[in-house]
Amino acid sequence: MRPGLSYLNGAVDVHVHVCPHLNGRSANVFEAVRQAAALGMRGLGLMDNFQNSSGYAALVMQELGHLGVEVFGGLIMQPTAGGVSYEAARNAVDYGYGPGTGARFLSLPTHHTHAEALREGRSPAFLETTFRVPSSGKVPDPVPAIMDLCAERDIVFDCGHVSGPEALALAEEARRRGTTRVRCHAQRYEPDEIAALVALGAVPEFSFFLLTHATQVGLTHVDAEKHRAPFQTVDDLAPRLRAAGRHAVLSSDAGIALLPEPAEALREFLLLLEAQGFAEADLKAMISENPARLFRVGG
After folding, report:
1. Of 67, 153, 159, 232, whose CB is crowded by the most CB atoms within 10 A?
2. What is this structure's pTM?
3. How many domains does the chain have?
């Protein structure tokens, strides 16, 4: 048995990009589920920058639900998927094949936030159209209403690719509104910001993608422009992950053809963290217990 496969038994990978895309994929949604089932995984979360992925999740559950992998999706509110809109969010929570198959998360944009657009070197005109939380910390409409919808449906509010200070403002607002399920993509945040997010009840997520060779070339994420994601070393990641304690979630963020299939990418990520000195029990909590609890997998 290959090293690290035991980590995948019962694992939930909440960040998988195997839906149709502009870039080539390593697997389609059906193949990814079959691979996960063969390794004893418990769940997969489908991410899609172009549309609500809960439709794909509902379809694959109808066809492959008997394999025992719970597949769920949600809406990333990119302009391509309707933008940061209460109407788009409201439609997403019921989009599927009946009760229980709607969006399991509602996410602010990934590649259409001010922070991410600055990182990608987008044009001033593009920057003007992006989502941001102002320096005052006041969360703009319609985000508070979307948080309320997440609370009402008991689903995850995802902060998207915002800056650390913006994530803190969003987590504080979510807490005030009783939105108890909050995910933050915290890989580039400072350790003190990550600790503060955990104290607010948010769950920081850390993914494999930024530690890989896929960062070495320009990729299209939501349009024809190609951008490189800044490479991160495991030495840089480690203090950030430790700042989260056992409260973090680990994911592959895989699916692009440059990387192995998501299940294999996740195995490699866990072995890398194990070699960095993270305890097996902590890694299992971050790949199984925490994501299952956050996204209500199996419950």
Report:
1. 159
2. 0.97
3. 1
**Which amino acid does the sequence have at 61?**
M
CATH number at residue 64: 3.20.20.140
CA distance 134 to 122: 19
Asked if 292 contacts 250 with a C-beta cutoff of 8 angstroms, the reply is no
Q: Starting at the edge strand that comes first in sequence, how are the strands of the sheet with 43-46 ordered?
A: 12-16, 43-46, 70-72
Mean of pLDDT values over 166-175: 98
CB 17 within 8 A of CB 253: yes
Six-digit token string for 105: 């998360």
Residue 207 bridge partners (DSSP):
251
**Among candidate residues 232, 248, 235, the one with its CA nearest the CA of residue 276:** 235
| pLDDT bracket for residue 99 (50, 70, 90) | confident
In a domain, residue 49? The reply is yes
CB 64 within 8 A of CB 35: no
**Segments forming the whole domain that contains residue 131:** 5-294
